[in-house]
Amino acid sequence: MANDYLERILTAHVYDVAxxxxxxxxxxxxxRIHNRVLLxxxxxxxxxxxxxxxxxxxxxxxxxxxxxxxxxxxxAGNHAQGVALAAQKLGCxxxxxxxxxxxxxxxxxxxxxxxxxxxxxxxxxxAYKYALDLAEEKGAEFIHPxxxxxxxxxxxxxxxxxxxxxxxxxxAIFVPIGGGGLISGIAAYVKRLRPTIKVIGVEPVxxxxxxxxxxxGHRVELxxxxxxxxxxxxxxxxxETFRLCRELVDEIILVNSDxxxxxxxxxxxxxxxxxxxxxxxxxxxxKIYAKQKNLMHETLxxxxxxxxxxxxxxxxxxxxxxxxEQREAIFAVTIPEEPGSFKKFCxxxxxxxxxxxxYRYADSRMAHVFVGVSVRNREESLHLMQILQxxxxxxxxxxxxxxxxxHIRHMVGGRSREVSHENxxxxxxxxxxxxxxxxxxxMGDRWNISLFHYRNHGADFGRVLVGIxxxxxxxxxxxxxxxxxxxxxWDENNNPTYKLFLV
Length: 503
Prior knowledge:
Oligomer: single chain
Number of helices: 20
CATH topology of the largest domain: Rossmann fold
Helix content: 40-55%
CATH class of the largest domain: Alpha Beta
């Protein structure tokens, strides 16, 4: 039973390393959504995330003889730092296995606390399997990041603090979900003492392992996960965490990357602190839930779970935040190639702020314009689209078009009518030194590359848009090549922005 966790949480050993974090008001966000929003500031722990709670509680309960053999963990970031700090405090050796894609700043942070770091594989799954084998080989204890009762109980002390810090009415607590350890611990405590409080999980739409598992009634392993919110990029949730979530969690909200970027901005505007994408996940879900349920004047609490953000990612976050807040709309507009048409188009935009403008001559009859416009909300963007169309201008709304946002807006103008048999694909590949060249080597020289656009977003994975000339009689071999390539890919041949701006 989940109630068995109450004693575990009340007696958890966390405060040798963790602090009781603040429950801060978010006045600007509260005013905007007409509810009282409070942020549980786990981003202010000494390792900038909640993970040290569970790691330390697990390790502090190990027998001294077990500790003497050392511990092993697999992690790309926050759990690694929690285990390293706990090992330093308890005086035991720690080996952390990290994917080779892990940014150097995270590796350095773990090593600075005295842990040994081994780089293995391109993904967390690769590192995890290697770490399990290593722990068995060394006779060391493996510290699981989420699927362990002592780890769950350690994270559950956050729920204990929330109820102590805010004894008044709480409508709901919003918690990011990766493997499920954090929400399981919080829900186990909160539902035991104040069952009327809703505990709501938040997952990215492309890393929704818990959501799919709860819908299916059993654990579902995702074939791949999105990597923007890397702190929750888990393909398979834990057995124990699934059991607890199935019993205790009220609902799961799914959010996209743009909504997460907007939430990072929300937290910054209220706290002047920058949380990582997974740390803003709960705020993004809170906003969607409040709107869906038409909530007014309720108290809503979001767990700001971490702040281990790579500085290089801030440009991407800033770029997408207005889209996530639905305060920017992106359109492709076709205008007549004749005197006065460009001025007419600008007049139709009115006094709205233009955030981006790309113009490309198409032929003697028409031109295509890629334009970003500041709007108040999605309704205004739809209204503006209707204005443009009613004035005879063919308009495509690209606000939700991932290829347009990632690539096209940065490469408008690359049209060619001389390229034959071109196929367009988006790829993701591990972003580390030499990775781009490795990607090209995999592509080989069998088919000609007719278009290539790459942007570094400061993330662990690079994103590439590639045009490849494939004669029709070789399409079957090409499809077989894609399946064997080992990279995530998306067919973009029917994307409207391709036809408007690139062919």
